[in-house]
Amino acid sequence: MWWILTAVGLAVAAWRFTEPPVAGTATVIALLAAWILAGNGRGRRALPFLALFAAALAALRLWGPEAAFPCQLRCEGVADYGTLFGLPVLGFAVVGYSALALAAWRCRHLPVGPLTAILAWSLAGGSLAYIGVSWYLSVICQHCFAVHTIVLAALAGVGWTRWRVLLALVVAAALGSWIVFSTPSAAPTATVTLSPSDESARALLDANRSVGPQDAALTIEFVIDLHCAVCARRHHDWMRAARTIPGLRITTRLLVRAGEPTAAEFARWVLGSGSQGDITFQLALAAVLGAPAGATIHDAIPRLAEVVETPALANWMEHHEAAATALLASDQHLLNAWGANRRTPMALLRSRDGEIARVSGDVELTPLIEQARSRLTGDKR
């Protein structure tokens, strides 16, 4: 039993501290160890501990600090797949794994009962569904795969029959289909009718979230999500690199994801900070970028107060919130049209004729900067 728990524990540690190729190899080794060593009741005795381990790991991600087991799926634009029926999938996972741990503990010295087997293989079907979604979206969540490793290793304590495997496949197909086809990927949009004063306010915000000449031949469009940790890490460096090119216009657009109900209000207030100037907008953006998922503007006010006149901003928003709403909505339409509504941060190099190139994710901006410099200086290297 202890060899099984050790192998699985090392695989989980690999997903936390190493790169996916190494962690994937550790998972394969752990699964082989679990199934090979499961005889003589060892797998059955390990089952409640593995189920409890999976429940604890899911709970850690759901309620623990972000740094405990970092996950960048929000920045990859697939955080919406973490909910079912409007509730966090991890909540269902904690309940399911805890129930399995209790059921397995009660029969640890007895043959595994049918209800325990059904629960274990149904949970395995859930893991298979999310592994399939990861393949479909071409993303890897280290935390998710750590949990999947535990769940699939736990099956060694239950054993397999054709009906159990069929049950897991049916659950995987049903859950996977629900996830893929029911989750919106496009950012929400809205239509707002503005008064003349709000039209002027909108133009002010649009101007102050940009840097560089309005008639520039080239523009770099930065697309960021206020809740994206990679955006918080990269945006300052990207902005500094872009500002090294004279004659380049730089515009920052805020992406609002469909699965984050508080994000739109948050983004409106950050855009509204531009009413106090372009520098204030950049300072406000830096102050709140990387806010935890679910954070509201009320959570961010103490940070904003360090760089923004918050009473003046609140008063401006009271009279001109429609301007920020309209600007945000137009951004979402543009980002949908450009296909830039998923992975963040993203930088698009555009001319008056359309897009030239783009980069996204946790990468350097150098390729885009070199293209922009080459085009603006006439260098044909």
Please describe what this structure looks like.
The chain is α+β, with helices and mostly antiparallel strands and 381 residues long. 61% of the residues lie in helices and 9% in strands. The chain has helices at residues 2-17, 20-36, 42-63, 73-76, 89-106, 114-137, 142-154, 162-182, 196-208, 229-242, 263-272, 278-288, 297-304, 310-338, 366-377, and strands at 83-84, 87-88, 210-211, 218-224, 248-254, 346-351, 354-360. The strands form two sheets. A five-stranded mixed β-sheet has the order 3-5-4-6-7, with helices on both faces. A two-stranded antiparallel sheet has the order 1-2. The longest helix has 29 residues, at 310-338. The radius of gyration is 25 Å and the shape is elongated.
